[in-house]
Write a structure and sequence with these properties.
Shape: globular
Helix content: 25-40%
Number of helices: 20
Oligomer: single chain
Radius of gyration: 28 Å
Largest sheet: 6 strands, antiparallel
Structural class: alpha+beta
């Protein structure tokens, strides 16, 4: 009887290991192994193999493997063909590591892996490449620190080529897996994203399905810097724009500015118009349909970036429903190609003194060489308002020198360890601003922020916040702090994401959260219609009253 039970147990174990596996399961696992070997295996990460070609050769064998046992054998033979991996002596690093992104546990927890395969992969991790990486580098030399190198461009790329579609996905997924500092903050688990998106790369329903999959997977990073661009987007969503800027409030699109007064006048578009429908659909319905294609670290950022998904189109005119002076109306408005908008950029005043001896500085217009004159003219004001709701130039350190009585740390950086891909370390003890300055500015300092303050604007706000008497007024910022790295995935598809982490000195996150205002103020529909800048007005009230 015991002998029979042992035989049954053996057969059950054999069946559980040899059970059929799905195409998606095999391909997702292959993607992870291919990326792991690309950045870890000494005989691959050194560039001595044509690694794309190796993928194309292994894919048919993976497809033929109809069980976990067969799959493991294919991968083990592949690894053996790459040559010997020598044992090296581990040198303990003195770096302070941050490992919320790091997870190679799949090496030992995969239903497709034999024990011997898991053991081989773990050995490669422990004896990973020690020399220069061929496919990636991260160096602070004044330029963009992260660089993906030596990737074949495939100038003859066609979407119908299954191998190249899978290559595009495998490349991108592993770029993020090992080199996106904020992976741990994403809404969706990155492993699950791979499994979810794979069918649209392996067997897309159409070119549009594949192209939009390339866009959608980048949006899942929840990073205002992250989106994949391709010419087909204009084909699908349209290459014509309205001559106005809008702000989404309560699922309505409020006209807040005109790109070209003359073109706006042709369609009688006015600041304060409340657009409720576009071609019969409510703004809420359009947002729901297209949310997965719009980049943003948080909801305010997504809404700021949603204009094209709401208003772009191929036709030169379209119908809107809008409210003006309390009356709901329907009319046609014109759209134009971007170059035909002839956008009118107004000359901005760099700084001025407002009522109550309050200085106002427009960061979008101010340059570093202007700061000495600014200090002379504003040093005796009661308060200075710095408008950071734009794209500030490199003035933060010069301004901080004026505002601070001494040097202060305001940020810490998180860099990828390319010698141990997937791990991150704190770059240094922290970034500092300000200097010993007994003649520092003694008045109130107010910084205006909102969702338009992204990246360098957020970094600027962090530095100004170190001054003794600073108040941030406005709303949640863009939540994408750190350098924005732009690069091609494959011909016709370029992408970007935040490539190093920026935190407060106490290691508190800014990504997705953004810079939090001390006093929250958001524009209202009525305020826009009355021509008010409600954030600036609140800042003026605070400057005068301290409340």
């Amino acid at each position: 009887m015991k002998k029979i039970l042992l035989i049954v147990f053996f057969l059950l174990c054999q069946y559980s290991f040899s059970k059929p596996v799905s195409e998606t399961q095999k391909l997702a696992t292959t993607a992870k192994i291919w990326g792991f070997l690309k950045y870890y295996h000494p005989n691959v990460a050194d560039g001595s193999k044509n690694w794309d070609d190796q993928l194309f050769q292994i894919l048919p064998k993976v497809e033929e493997a109809n069980s976990a046992e067969a799959f493991s054998l294919v991968i083990e033979n592949w690894i053996a063909s790459l040559g010997e991996v020598k044992i090296y002596e581990v040198i303990n690093s003195k770096r302070e590591y941050f490992d919320k992104n790091f997870d190679l546990s799949w090496i030992n927890k995969n239903d497709l892996f034999s024990k011997s395969l898991s053991k081989k992969l773990k050995f490669i991790e422990e004896n990973r490449i020690q020399g220069k990486q061929y496919y990636v580098d991260f160096v602070h030399n004044g330029g963009m620190p992260l660089q993906f190198n030596n990737e074949v461009k495939y100038t003859d790329f066609k979407w119908t080529d299954k191998n190249l579609r899978l290559l595009a996905l495998f490349r991108y997924w592993n770029y993020i897996e090992y080199f996106f500092p904020y992976k741990y903050q994403m809404d969706e688990n990155w492993d699950k994203v791979l499994v979810e998106m794979l069918p649209r790369f392996f067997a897309p329903e159409s070119e549009k399905d594949f192209v939009l999959a390339m866009r959608e997977i980048s949006i899942k990073l929840n990073d205002t810097h992250a989106s994949t661009q391709m010419p087909q987007l204009f084909e699908y969503f349209g290459d014509k724009f309205i001559p106005a800027d809008v702000k989404i409030i309560d699922d309505k699109a409020i006209v807040v500015d005109l790109k070209n007064d003359s073109l706006a006048k042709i369609s009688d578009i006015r600041i304060g118009d409340v657009i409720t429908k576009v071609e019969g659909k409510t703004i809420a319905e359009i947002l729901k349909e297209n949310w997965k294609y719009i980049e943003g670290s948080n909801n305010p950022s997504i809404l700021k970036n949603a204009y094209w998904a709401i208003f772009n189109g191929k036709s030169p005119s379209f119908e809107i429903e809008f409210v003006r002076d309390g009356k709901t109306q329907v009319k046609a408005v014109n759209r134009y190609k971007y170059q035909d908008l002839k956008i009118q950029f107004l000359q901005k005043e760099k700084w001025k003194i407002l009522e109550g001896n309050i200085g106002y500085v427009d960061f979008d217009a101010l340059d570093a060489e202007d700061v000495p004159n600014l200090i002379v003219e504003l040093k005796n004001t009661n308060a200075v308002i710095f408008d950071d709701r734009t794209s500030p130039h490199d003035v933060m350190f010069a301004i901080s020198d004026w505002l601070n009585p001494q040097q202060k740390k305001f940020a810490r950086f998180l860099d990828p360890d390319v010698s141990y891909p997937g791990r991150y370390f704190w770059r240094n003890e922290g970034e500092a601003c300000g200097k010993n300055n007994p003649d520092y500015y003694k008045g109130k300092v107010i910084v205006l922020i909102d969702e338009k303050a992204v990246s360098h604007a957020e970094f600027t706000a962090m530095s100004l916040k170190t001054a003794p008497n600073v108040t941030l007024i406005g709303s949640q910022t863009g939540g994408a702090d750190g350098a924005n790295y732009r690069f091609p995935i494959i011909k016709g598809f370029s992408t970007s994401f935040t490539c190093y982490g920026v935190f407060y000195p106490n290691k508190k996150e800014t990504q997705r959260i953004g810079i939090v205002p001390d006093i929250e103020v958001k524009p209202t529909i009525l305020g826009i219609q009355q021509g008010k800048d409600e954030i600036l007005e609140r800042a003026m009230f605070f400057a005068k009253s301290g409340k």
